Amino acid sequence: MTTQKNTDDRIALLQGTLDLLILRTLLLGPCHGQGVARSIQRQSEEVFFVDHGSLYLALQRLEDRKWISAKWGVSENNRKARFYSLTLKGRGQLVEKTSEWERLTKAMGLILGGCAGPSGEEA
User: Fold this and answer.
1) 36: enclosing H helix or E strand
2) CATH assignment of 13-113, given 2.60.120.10, 3.40.50.2300, 3.40.190.10, 1.10.10.10?
3) In the chain, where do the E strands start and end?
């Protein structure tokens, strides 16, 4: 179930963005998949909605790369769940990918901040 008011307004996550969001979420501590999805949605003020298919493929990919580890445990609603944790290698990737995103968002800000308006004048 989605809390999005209009599913057409969902923002498509660029390739690699979901990995970064998951790594950042796990920096706060171990979490099960549903908790990761809820945290991303909550921290983005309901802008990002991560569907479970994409989430679990990303978690598997990150585990295969040894950026996260997983172990079975019991969730807050007393169900068996896999809890994911950030590894040392994953922390390194988080730092690297965060730097890349900061560089990209700065460049986008420079371009968007200097956009010409409809009259041809800079905004």
Assistant:
1) helix 33-43
2) 1.10.10.10
3) 31-32, 68-74, 80-86
Question: DSSP secondary structure string, 38-68?
Answer: HHHHHHTTT-----HHHHHHHHHHHHHTTSE
- Amino acid 34 reads Q
Other Cβ atoms less than 10 A from the Cβ of 54: the count is 13
pLDDT of the chain, 123 residues: tens digit per residue: 454 554 544 444 455 899 999 999 999 999 999 999 999 999 999 999 999 999 999 999 999 999 999 999 998 889 999 999 999 999 999 999 999 889 989 999 999 997 655 555 554
Residue 79 — φ and ψ, nearest 5°?
A: -115, 150
Tokens representing 117 are 């308006």
